[in-house]
Amino acid sequence: MEIKEVFKKEKELIKKEIEVKGWIRKHRKQKEISFIDLSDGTTIKQLQVIYDKNLKDFDSIQKIHFGSSIKVKGVLKKGRDTIELQAKEIILIGDCSEEYPIQPKKHSREFLREQAYLRPRTTLFQAVFRVRSIASMAIHEYFQKEGYVYLHAPLFTSSDCEGAGEMFRVTTLDIEKISKTGYIDYEDEFFGKKVGLSVSSQFEGETFAQAFSKVYTFGPSFRADKSHTPYHVAEFWHVEPEVAFCDLEGIMDIGEDVLKYVIKYVLKHAKVEMKFLDEKVEKGLIKKLKKVLKEPFKRVTYKECIDILKQSKIDFEFTPKYGEDISKEHERYLTEYFGCPTI
Amino acid sequence: MEIKEVFKKEKELIKKEIEVKGWIRKHRKQKEISFIDLSDGTTIKQLQVIYDKNLKDFDSIQKIHFGSSIKVKGVLKKGRDTIELQAKEIILIGDCSEEYPIQPKKHSREFLREQAYLRPRTTLFQAVFRVRSIASMAIHEYFQKEGYVYLHAPLFTSSDCEGAGEMFRVTTLDIEKISKTGYIDYEDEFFGKKVGLSVSSQFEGETFAQAFSKVYTFGPSFRADKSHTPYHVAEFWHVEPEVAFCDLEGIMDIGEDVLKYVIKYVLKHAKVEMKFLDEKVEKGLIKKLKKVLKEPFKRVTYKECIDILKQSKIDFEFTPKYGEDISKEHERYLTEYFGCPTI
């Protein structure tokens, strides 16, 4: 049984025998009795397993290292704050080494970045990746219910999409060999010509919108810009809707609509995870999101933006000026000025 | 109003004035009266627009080339076989050149392949791409309702996933320059080392399954094998579920379950498109799919397969032999032998 199900049906399961499988997050050992926090990743909640001296193999079970996977049969009980599983049988499925780097304590994100294959086992990343998954589903649900056709645009391309970014080149040439021989045999090049990775599926979306009226892509794009800011990544997934017979007002309606739909969907389907993120990562997160849902987004012209920025008397890094781009710092100021998402 | 909606609500819309936008698929001109087949891609069905001499600008509207986009205001009428829109106003939105290559006739798929940006405007590709979109949604719905976490695995990688295929190299090096100078400056290489495009997200899926119990990826993979068969493509999208605490029997259950779910979903949500494909592309398609839904898949051991293949007395290209792979021709024979999907 999944641990999510155990919590969901806890009332009817009390005093019943159940079986769960998962990974040990914490293992507190006492002489007569011991406690295991068990996670199977179906929820960020952990199930407390209790076992005592009467359990078969008590001594060897006490030696099981956290991080190991186990199977537990037992009877569900009402504990002080939450439910507990009184174990009747504990079986080791997969052992975990003493050198296991994820300790039952708070790790820095920098440390976890180096343990990329293990960090999904922490509560933080359990929450983040489940929210990402649920938000992705919300995006698909929104566009499908609105009748859009979902496209998988080709990622190998020789178009650079109006210079949206620097392109990575894709090749089957042996570059090291070329440096030695000085000779490029284009017969060795898979497509027989220079090909790169798509920086955007916009062009493909546009040609399909001219056939289906409403289409969207939701896939990866790649940009080789050597810019080490938090706003740039070499590969990322994004959503690109393209709509025929639509005007700017209509596009803004869609943008606002899809964002609100995703927020509503995530708040509904990732309740536990959002509560965790609200408490541990960004206080007030849920309140902020609910505020976004309540009000219409502010829609403002470019000219009005520049006027507001000029009147702000703030010493921006980039001085606001008619004809120039609106920079990140300007966007931030404007959003705070209006107190809501601003288009 | 979308043309899909017009057909859906045709009973309540008869004698009402409506406005539609779309592309002209066919334009038949007579002296007193003319007919336009209008498509907006929200359904593969086309709406017949009728206009006569009394319409303002009758002569110039008759000159509008098929492929053009127009806006039509008119009154919906019951025609002989289907509904018709009696135009009160027709406005040209986007003109289409006389050289437009998609004629109102059947084109070969080879020809359409060369017109990749226009082929979504044909009924065949309207059906194919909508079915693909709906099938993709079915896949997401299945795994999400079963509690799987959807992952976007990194596509840049230095692992080759157990040699699942040849890798494309991704580079920011200037290969042409290297051939001249004979010198590779790895400072110019984006990641500072040799990086390729993922051939499978299996490894990432496995690490996440060890945290969430059930995960899936649905994204692109890339293979540089120089194999020109219908079974090989350089880039493709696939679904890779990874499940912890599961055995072979359980994995087969999931495989069977997801396939049946997708078929059921497509038959329900792409009715018109599937009917078209059944009539025009593969007779008996719907019947075949419904048969797949009805019966359990055949599950058979490797040994049993080889025995059946040996007893078939068929002169296979690859002689079936214990210890050897089961080839495509063998798979085809076995599936026909059992008369159903075979695992």
Detailed description of the structure:
In chain A, the strands form 3 sheets. In chain A, strands 1-2-3-5-4 form a 5-stranded mixed beta barrel. A 3-stranded mixed β-sheet of chain A has the order 6-10-11. A 3-stranded antiparallel β-sheet of chain A has the order 7-9-8, with no helix packed on it. By secondary structure, chain A is an alpha+beta fold. In chain A, a hairpin with a 7-residue loop joins strand 2 (33-39) and strand 3. Chain A has helices at 3-8, 10-13, 58-62, 109-113, 123-145, 175-181, 202-212, 248-269, 271-280, 285-294, 302-311, 328-338; strands at 17-29, 33-39, 47-52, 69-78, 83-94, 149-151, 156-157, 169-171, 195-197, 214-222, 235-243. The interface between A and B is large, with 70 and 70 residues.
The biggest beta sheet of chain A is recorded as: 5 strands, mixed, barrel
**What oligomeric state do the depicted chains represent?**
homodimer
The first-to-last residue Cα distance of chain A is: 47 Å
Count of alpha/pi helices of chain A: 12
Summarize the structure.
Chain A has 343 residues and is α+β, with helices and mostly antiparallel strands. In chain A, 36% of the residues lie in helices and 22% in strands. Chain A is globular and about 75 Å long.
